[in-house]
C-alpha cells in the first residue's frame, strides 16, 4: 500500500512544475500545457483525498475540472491560433499590447 | 363692480406685466427679421395695453372703500424651503397703482417718442426689446407683494439700465458708463439683500403685508434691528436712486439714448428707491434715526447736486444733476415723515423731468447730435413747439405756480419746515433757488440769445417730427395739470394714498399732512418758495440774457470755486483714487501673485506629486502576464502558509 503522502507529494510536484512553467516559459503553447498540468495536479489531490475519506465528492469535482479544462483547451487553443495568425509568433513577450 | 369675462378688473393685474413681457419676447426673438415699423408698433402696443389695464385697475380700486383698497393675487409658490417661502404674487394698493400708472403712462409716451428718435438706429429692435423688458421689470418692482420679488424687479431694472446706457457699446465711454452704473448699483443692492435677510430673520416672512403688520408689535421704536433694516434698505435706495455717496453713476448714464435717460434715469427707475422707502414706511417710522439719515442725505444731495448743475455745459448732464437733486427732495420728504409728499413729487417729477429730457432729446435730434449748450442758442425760432413745451417743463421744475413742480416742491419745503428743522428747510430752499437758476440758464443758453451754432448745424436745424412732438405736448399738459392732484386744500393724492401709510392707521396719515398747518403759514411758505424761484430765474436772466459777459466775470473772480464745481467737486477723481485704483491694484496683486503663483502653484504641485509617485507605481504594471501570475501565486502561497501557521 502506497502511503497517501506520496500521492500528495506527486501532486505538489506536478503543480509546482506547472506553476514554474507558466512563470518562466515564453511559448504560449507550453504555458498552456503547464496550466493543464496544474489542473491535473489538483485532480490528483482531489482523487487522493476522495479515496482517503471514502467520499465521492472529490471524484465528482474531478469530473467538473476535466470538463472545464476541455472547454478551456478549446477556447485557449483558438485564442493562440488567432494570435499566431495576427503576429506570426506565440512568444508571450511579443504579445504586449496592453503594456503602457 | 364691472366684470370682465366673469372677473373684476383687479384680477387682470397680471396682464399689466404680461404685455410688456410679450413685447420683449416678440421683439427679442423675431425683431431682427421684422421691419422697423412692426417692431415699433409691437413695442408701443405692449406698453399701451399695459397702461389701459392699469387704468381699469385704478378705476376698480377707486370703487372700493378706502380702507379696503388692498388686493393681493398670488400666482404660485416660487421658492419654498423650510420656513422660508417666497410667493410670486402681486399687490394692488393705492401706492402701487399710482406707480404703475406713471410707469406705463410715461413709459408709453417715451416709447412713442423713441419710434421717431431712434428711427435711424441699427439696433432699433434691440432698443425696443430692452425698453419693454425695462418696463416689465419696473412694473414687477412696484407690484410685487414681497421683498424678494421686488428685488427681482429691482435687479431687472438695473440690468436694463446697464444694457441701455451701454446701448451704443462701440463707444468706449458708453460701455464704461454702463459698467459704472452696474457696479455702483451693486454696492446698493448688497445693502438691500442684507436687509431682506435681516427682515426674514426678524419676522420669519418676507411678505409685505405680514411684515408691516408684525413690525409695530415686534419691534420697538428706535430699536437696533429696526434701524439696521431701514438703514440697509436705504443703502439699496441710495444706490438705485443716485444719492450721496453713490450718485456718480447717474450723470455718466447720460451716454445712453436720450429717451432712455428720460424714462429710466429720470422718470421711473431712479425713483424706485423713493418708492421702496415709502412702501416700507411702517419700518422707517419705527426708526427715527434712519429717518434723520434719510432726510439729511436727501437734503444734502438736493443741494450738492444742484451746485454741480450750475457749471455743467452738457445739456443732458445738467438735467442729470437736476434729477439727482430732485430725488434728494423726495428723500427729504420721506425723511421728515411726509411719505405721500415724496410720492407726489415723484409723480410730478416724472412728468416734467421726462418732458425736459425728451425736449433736450428733440434739441439734440434737431442739431444732429450736439449736446454742448455753448454751441446752441437762439433755437426758439427754429423749434417753436419744443421751446414751448420745454419752457413749461422748466417752469414746473423751478416751482412757479400753477405748474406741477410748484405744488409738490412747496409741500416738501413746508413739511421740511414744520416736521423737520430749519436746517433741512434751508437746504431745500437754497437748492430750489439753484434749481431755478440752472434750469433757466439751460433754457436761455439753448433757446434764447444769439445763435452759437456752427454754420453747418444751423443750415440743418429743424423742428422734430410729430412722433416726438406729441409726447412732448402730452407731457407738457401733464406738467401743467399734474400738480392739481395734490392741491393744498383738497389733496386728492393725500386721501388716496393715506391708507398705505402707517399700515392703515389713519390718525398718523391724516395728522401727517397739512391738516395741522395753519393756512397763513402755508400761504406764506408758498409765497417764499415762489419768491425764491423768481429770484433764481431773474438771476439767470440777468446773467445769460441781459449781460452775457457777466458769467465770465464771475468765473474770473471765483476761479477756484468755479473750477471745483465745474469738475463736480472731483468726487469721481476721489473715488477713482481711493476706491477704484486700490481695488484694481489689489485685484492685480491677487491675480498675479495669489491666483497665478499660490493657488495655481498649489494645484500644479499636487498634480506634479501624483505624477512622480505614478512613475514609481508604473513599474509594477509590467504588462507581462507571468509577472501578474507570479504575484497571484505568491499571494496564494502566503495565504496558505499563514493559514497553516495560524491554524
Structural features, described:
The complex is a heterodimer of chains A (100) and B (647). Chain A is mostly helical. Chain A is built from three helices and no strands. In chain B, the strands form two sheets. Chain B has a two-stranded antiparallel ribbon. Chain B is globular. The longest helix of chain B is centred in the C-terminal third of the chain and has 48 residues. In chain B, α3 runs antiparallel to α4, α14 packs across α17 and α14 runs antiparallel to α18. Helix content of chain B is 73%, strand content 4%. Chain B has 27 helices and four strands. Chain B is mainly alpha-helical. The interface between A and B is small, with 10 and 10 residues.
Topology record:
The complex is a heterodimer of chains A (100) and B (647).
Chain A: H1 4-24, H2 28-53, H3 57-87
Chain B: E1 3-4, E2 7-8, H1 13-30, H2 36-63, E3 71-81, E4 84-92, H3 94-117, H4 124-143, H5 147-165, H6 172-203, H7 208-218, H8 224-240, H9 249-252, H10 258-267, H11 272-279, H12 281-285, H13 288-310, H14 315-335, H15 339-366, H16 384-398, H17 404-418, H18 422-447, H19 455-460, H20 466-481, H21 492-497, H22 506-512, H23 519-546, H24 550-557, H25 559-566, H26 571-618, H27 625-646
Antiparallel strand pairs in B: 1-2, 3-4
Amino acid at each position: 500500500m502506497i502511503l497517501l503522502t506520496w500521492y500528495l507529494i506527486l501532486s505538489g510536484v506536478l503543480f509546482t512544475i506547472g506553476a514554474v512553467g507558466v512563470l518562466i516559459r515564453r511559448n504560449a503553447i507550453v504555458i498552456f500545457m503547464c496550466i493543464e498540468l496544474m489542473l491535473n495536479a489538483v485532480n490528483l489531490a482531489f482523487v487522493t483525498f476522495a479515496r482517503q475519506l471514502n467520499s465521492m465528492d472529490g471524484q465528482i469535482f474531478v469530473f467538473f475540472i476535466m470538463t472545464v479544462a476541455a472547454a478551456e483547451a478549446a477556447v485557449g487553443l483558438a485564442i493562440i491560433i488567432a494570435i499566431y495568425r495576427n503576429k506570426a509568433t506565440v512568444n508571450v513577450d511579443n504579445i504586449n499590447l496592453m503594456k503602457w | 363692480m364691472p366684470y370682465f369675462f366673469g372677473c373684476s378688473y383687479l384680477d387682470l393685474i397680471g396682464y399689466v406685466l404680461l404685455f410688456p413681457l410679450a413685447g420683449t419676447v416678440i421683439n427679442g426673438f423675431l425683431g431682427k427679421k421684422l421691419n422697423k415699423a412692426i417692431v415699433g408698433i409691437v413695442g408701443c402696443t405692449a406698453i399701451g395695453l399695459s397702461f389701459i389695464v392699469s387704468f381699469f385697475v385704478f378705476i376698480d380700486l377707486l370703487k372700493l372703500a378706502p380702507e379696503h383698497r388692498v388686493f393681493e393675487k398670488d400666482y404660485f409658490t416660487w421658492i419654498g424651503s423650510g420656513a422660508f417661502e417666497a410667493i410670486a404674487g402681486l399687490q394692488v394698493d393705492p401706492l402701487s397703482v399710482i406707480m404703475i400708472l406713471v410707469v406705463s403712462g410715461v413709459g408709453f409716451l417715451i416709447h412713442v417718442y423713441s419710434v421717431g428718435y431712434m428711427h435711424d438706429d441699427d439696433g432699433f429692435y434691440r432698443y425696443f426689446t430692452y425698453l419693454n423688458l425695462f418696463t416689465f421689470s419696473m412694473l414687477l418692482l412696484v407690484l410685487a407683494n414681497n421683498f424678494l420679488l421686488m428685488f427681482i424687479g429691482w435687479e431687472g431694472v438695473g440690468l436694463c439700465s446697464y444694457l441701455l446706457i451701454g446701448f451704443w457699446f462701440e463707444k468706449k465711454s458708453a460701455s464704461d458708463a454702463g459698467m459704472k452704473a452696474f457696479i455702483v448699483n451693486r454696492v446698493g443692492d448688497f445693502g438691500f439683500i442684507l436687509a431682506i435677510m435681516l427682515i426674514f430673520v426678524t419676522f420669519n416672512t418676507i411678505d409685505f403685508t405680514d411684515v408691516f403688520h408684525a413690525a409695530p408689535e415686534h419691534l420697538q421704536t428706535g430699536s437696533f434691528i429696526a434701524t439696521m433694516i431701514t438703514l440697509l434698505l436705504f443703502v439699496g435706495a441710495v444706490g438705485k436712486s443716485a444719492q450721496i455717496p453713490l450718485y456718480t453713476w447717474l450723470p455718466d448714464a447720460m451716454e445712453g439714448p436720450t429717451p432712455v435717460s428720460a424714462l429710466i434715469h429720470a422718470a421711473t427707475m431712479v425713483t424706485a428707491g423713493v418708492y421702496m422707502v415709502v412702501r416700507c414706511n411702517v419700518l422707517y417710522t419705527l426708526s427715527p434715526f434712519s429717518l434723520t439719515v434719510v432726510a439729511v442725505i436727501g437734503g444734502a444731495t438736493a443741494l450738492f447736486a444742484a451746485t454741480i448743475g450750475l457749471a455743467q455745459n452738457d445739456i443732458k448732464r445738467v438735467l442729470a444733476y437736476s434729477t439727482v437733486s430732485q430725488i434728494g427732495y423726495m428723500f427729504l420728504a420721506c425723511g421728515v415723515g411726509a411719505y405721500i409728499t415724496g410720492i407726489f413729487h415723484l409723480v410730478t417729477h416724472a412728468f416734467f423731468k421726462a418732458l425736459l429730457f425728451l425736449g433736450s432729446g428733440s434739441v439734440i435730434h434737431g442739431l444732429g447730435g450736439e449736446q454742448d449748450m455753448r454751441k446752441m442758442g437762439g433755437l426758439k425760432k427754429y423749434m417753436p413747439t419744443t421751446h414751448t413745451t420745454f419752457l413749461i417743463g422748466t417752469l414746473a421744475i423751478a416751482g412757479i405756480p400753477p405748474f406741477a413742480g410748484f405744488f409738490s416742491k412747496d409741500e416738501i419745503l413746508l413739511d421740511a419746515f414744520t416736521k423737520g428743522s430749519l436746517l433741512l428747510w434751508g437746504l431745500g430752499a437754497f437748492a430750489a433757488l439753484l434749481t431755478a437758476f440752472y434750469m433757466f440758464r439751460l433754457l436761455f443758453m439753448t433757446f434764447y440769445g444769439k445763435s452759437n451754432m456752427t454754420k453747418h448745424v444751423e443750415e440743418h436745424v429743424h423742428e422734430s417730427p410729430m412722433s416726438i412732438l406729441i409726447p412732448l405736448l402730452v407731457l407738457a399738459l401733464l406738467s401743467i395739470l399734474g400738480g392739481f392732484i395734490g392741491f393744498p386744500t383738497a389733496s386728492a393724492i393725500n386721501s388716496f394714498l393715506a391708507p398705505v401709510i402707517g399700515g392703515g392707521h389713519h390718525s398718523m396719515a391724516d395728522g401727517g399732512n397739512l391738516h395741522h398747518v395753519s393756512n397763513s403759514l402755508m400761504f406764506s411758505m408758498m409765497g417764499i418758495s415762489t419768491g425764491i424761484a423768481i429770484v433764481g430765474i431773474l438771476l439767470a436772466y440777468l446773467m445769460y440774457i441781459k449781460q452775457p459777459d457777466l458769467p465770465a466775470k464771475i468765473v474770473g473772480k471765483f476761479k477756484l470755486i468755479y473750477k471745483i464745481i465745474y469738475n463736480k467737486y472731483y468726487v469721481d477723481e476721489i473715488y477713482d483714487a481711493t476706491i477704484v485704483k486700490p481695488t484694481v491694484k489689489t485685484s492685480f496683486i491677487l491675480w498675479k501673485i495669489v491666483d497665478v503663483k499660490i493657488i495655481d502653484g498649489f494645484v500644479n504641485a499636487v498634480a506634479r506629486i501624483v505624477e512622480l509617485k505614478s512613475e514609481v507605481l508604473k513599474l509594477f504594471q509590467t504588462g507581462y502576464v507571468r509577472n501578474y501570475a507570479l504575484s497571484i501565486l505568491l499571494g496564494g502561497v502566503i495565504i496558505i502558509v499563514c493559514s497553516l501557521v495560524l491554524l
